[in-house]
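Render NADH-quinone oxidoreductase subunit J in 3D.
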Amino acid sequence: MTVFWVLAPIMVAAALGILFVRKAVHAAMLLAVVMLSLSVLYLELDAPFLFAVQIIVYTGAILMLFLFVLMLVGVDASDSVVETIRGQRVAAWFAGLLLGVVLVLGLGQISLGTEVGLDAANAGGNIQALANIIFSQYVYAFEVTSALLITAALGAMVLAHRERLTPKETQASIAAQRMKDYAESGKHPGPLPPPGVFARHNAVDTPALLPDGTAAEASVSRVLAARGTVRSAPKLADDIEVVQQQLGGVSTDEGRRSGKAGTSSATEEDAT
C-alpha cells in the first residue's frame, strides 16, 4: 500500500500534465512517467508478466516510437478544430461513457467483494494462469485485439499516404526548365560549383575559386554563411595568388605596387 500511495499522486499529476502541456515531446515524457509507475504497481500486485510487458513493449517500444515520430516529423503548435470525419465527436462521447461504465462496474465489484482475488488467480503461477486465461476463456477477445492493432497500423499507413499532385519530373523536363531559367533570368544552367575547387583545402566552408581567382559565393551553403563559419578572404589570399600566377596574371604584391604607382603619378599630375 505504501508504494501505491507514493506513486498514485505522481501518476495523477503526470496524467493531468499530459492534458495541459503545450509541447508534444513533454506530453510523451509525462506519459512515460505514467507507464513506468503503472509497471511498478503491477509488480506490487504480483503480476511480473504485466510488469515486464509494460516496460518492454509500451514504454520501451511504443512510446519511443512516438518520440521518434515527433522528433522526425514534428508537430505544429496550432490544432485544427475542424471535424474532418463525420460522427467522430459522437463516437468519442460514446466511447468515453462506455469506459466510465466499465470503471464503475469494476469499482463496484471490488467494493462488493465479488472479485476472484489475485491469490486465487495466481494459484498455479502468474504467467501460467495468464496464458491459460488468454488462450482459453478470452481467446476471441485476444484475436480481435490483435486484428484491431493491425487495422490501426494499416489506417496509419493510409492516413500518412499522400497523393502526388504533379507528375514526377524527368531528367529531360529538369534540363528544359534549366534552359528556360537561363533564357529568362540568366541563371546558370549547370550545377553549382562544389566547395574547395581550385583551392588548397577541399572543405565545405571553403569557397570555390573562379578562373580569375575570385571566390564563388554560390559554392558555399547559405546556412554556413549565415552562421559565419565560412573561411574569410584573407585566408584564401595565397590560393588566389597561386591561381593568378598560373593564369599568367599579376600577383597580389605587383598589383598593389602598380596601384600605388598609379596613385602617386596621379597625385603628381594633380599637383602640377
